[in-house]
Amino acid sequence: MCDEASEGGGEDTEAMQQETVPVPAPAKKTKQPKECFLIQPKETKEDSTKTRKRRKKKITDVLAKSEPKPGTPADLQQLMKDYYSSSRSVIELEELNLPDSCFLKANDLTHSLSSYLKEICPKWVKLRKNHSEKKSVLMLVICSSAIRALELIRSMTAFRGDSKVMKLFAKHIKVQEQVKLLEKRVVHLGVGTPGRIKELIKQGGLNLNPLKFLVFDWNWRDQKLRRMMDIPEIRKEVFELLEIGVLSLCKSESLKLGLF
Questions:
Q1: pTM for the structure as a whole
Q2: 143 touches 193 (CB < 8 A)
Q3: Which CA distances in Å does 155 have to 106, 171, 260?
Q4: Which domains are seen in the chain, by residue range?
Q5: Contact in structure between 193 and 147 (CB atoms under 8 Å)
Q6: Distance, CA of 6 to CA of 170 (rounded, Å)
Q7: Which of 28, 138, 233, 245 has the fewest CB atoms within 10 Å, counting from its CB?
Q8: pLDDT at position 13
Q9: Sorting pLDDT into bands at 50, 70 and 90, what band is 8?
Q10: In whole angstroms, how far apart are CA 63 and each of 108, 144, 221, 222?
Q11: What are the phi and psi torsion angles at 53 (to 5°)?
Q12: CA 149 from chain center: how many Å?
């Protein structure tokens, strides 16, 4: 009896203990921090256009808005100083200065090529009749490309008359072919690029001593609104050409420079 009572009491005690054991409260779900994303405002076509224009703004954009100004001898002199300033001494830079007397009147943007050449060389007919030396020309017109050279040749018809004109550029014409042509016949006018003219001089195909006029196609601009001296490769070749004989001829006053 006692054992049963004690067993029964044990069960009751166990049951009470079970009842009195606190049930843990369910853990509250902690809220995970949400990631924040900054929503970029939608870019309108107008905004993207402005950004694109700002990013791609080049010298041509400035040139497009500026009034064209005719080139002057001072422009050429300054370009030469800027080009050689980092590699030449002060004395060497002074030696590059050209006398004002070697410059012809520059084009004021009112001339065609023929009218400009007639103005700077009024005695051309007599001059070309007296020219009989091969491997040389009396006048060189220097421009930036073969296409431009062809345009210039067409536009000088009124000036050249019966003068023999030769294309002096690299496109579709090998330098040795041009050397042979200069050896075979008398040429009065040469129109071409500074790189090819420089190469002809180096290979002995073109003698500069009889040269009387050297005209730069200075003011014309290409589709990107660049003048020939705005193009780094052309500018480099022009200055190299000047140094292999042109500067010395200018200083001796046997050669005149013109800016068309």
A1: 0.75
A2: yes
A3: 18, 20, 13
A4: 69-259 (3.40.50.300)
A5: no
A6: 122
A7: 28
A8: 47
A9: very low
A10: 18, 18, 10, 12
A11: -65, -40
A12: 18
